[in-house]
Amino acid sequence: MNYKNYINGEWSDKDAWSEVISTGVDSGSFKKMFDNVNPANTTKVIGQFRDSGEPEINYAVECATRAFKTWKNVPAPKRADILFKAAEILVRDKECIAKGMTVEMGKVLAETRGDVQEAIDIAYYAAGAGRRLTGETVPSELENKWSMSAKLPYGVIGMITPWNFPIAIPAWKAFPAIVAGNTVVLKPAEDTPWSVIKLAEVFHEAGLPDGVFNVVTGYGPSAGMPLVKHPKVKVISFTGSSATGRLIAKECSKLGKKYSLELGGKNSITVTENADLDLAVEGVIFGAFGTTGQRCTACSRVIIDKKVKKEFTEKLLAKTESLRIGDGLEDDTDVGPLINKKAIDKVEGYVMRAIERGDYLLAGGHEIEMNSGYFYAPTIFTDIKPDNELAQEEIFGPVVAIIEYNTFDEMMDIVNGTKYGLSAAIYTKDINESFRFMRDVETGLAYVNTSCIGAEVGQNFGGIKDTSPISSREAGNMMFDAVTYNKNMVVDFSGKLQKAQIE
Ligand code: NAD
User: Could you tell me the pTM of the whole model?
Assistant: First the structure.
């Protein structure tokens, strides 16, 4: 199947062509396509997608700029009504989208259902907020003068998203932006264009006006960067790797453009002496091997009290060995494939270097040959020192490093001893320990007696340190912060010039 970009409410090349020709930009890249394959069986091609470049981005931004003029003045509750409708369509199509997403990016069906559910949740949440886009009134210091403020949209927001949450992350970004009155040009990851095309179909059916939500597929440097650099794009909202985030930050700074970044993580689960070890094992398995370790919040460090290390490790090993690796569409699969060959090579590189160093490999550490898919065995290293690269760098695969500690303070230093700051969890029955941990951990997300993952729309999601170098939060009551600005407005009805605070 041949998939097209979604620009100005249309899928037709014809209209895009004539528009491009009339605007005089090079239309050559419309001809280029790329294949999208199933990572569980790479002989299965999902479809061909547009390998877009600057012309398509320019066209989409022009359309989004035009649409903004009208969309910003549509009453927010009416904008929200369309989002409510989109939520209902997502509920109706949840299973079909989840299955397609598993085929596209590999995670097991239960997780892709969760991905679509996150989109549904943020749709209802943001749509509800369409009736609560409140500003403030403040008493003026002068007579007969009225001061107020409102949250207003910026204009065209450029969004660049990763493949690991193919619908949830685009939804977290786009839904609040649209309800607030912005228009959007979204460049999805090249590994998951299908899922975002589905989102465009949902908006199309929900009756979103032309040009409010546009999807341009393609690669980062050729399609993402022109979006970042486009002068009519007012804000860039990016989620992805730290390396790409740094490039985007540099370009935006040069242009004086507003941007928000959600980048990598090196998350940990601490298991204390008095933890429920069985519960902690479940949490580590879910955190380290769920989504095949490819979550920004994945647990890649287990920091364990030396006194319970042996017992915990035996339980973890037994559970890990019982995991079934396979196609995420099959009911009994626990762990699906990695996303692509590059991911396999990256994981393999970390594992090989660790083995060469003499690090203690407890489980896994090898590829699994199956149906020409990108499968890798869940891997555990133990007795790892906190400064080892396994304990410092984001591997983004099913690899976890066990690090032991003796005292609570030592444990906190290990937890906080990386450049990242997204998520951390502690398993403990000691309430004092749990509060000390939550207060002192240097992350945006802190969990007690549950795994280090589990975003909910009611909470602000994001990190600190290198994970979110520009403080940004998605979902929760800060979801409008990156996509609206605060405007102060003053009306003086005294009928005379009043001079405030000049004496
Ligand atoms: P990536 O940086 O390779 O790609 C992300 C997006 O950026 C893709 O759409 C890609 O095409 C685009 N891109 C790549 N190079 C570009 C360039 N030069 N200019 C413009 N755009 C470019 O990341 P990925 O592999 O898709 O995703 C995995 C990473 O995302 C991990 O590091 C993970 O931790 C991070 N992530 C973070 C969060 C969070 O909320 N903190 C959530 C999910 C994923």
Answer: 0.96
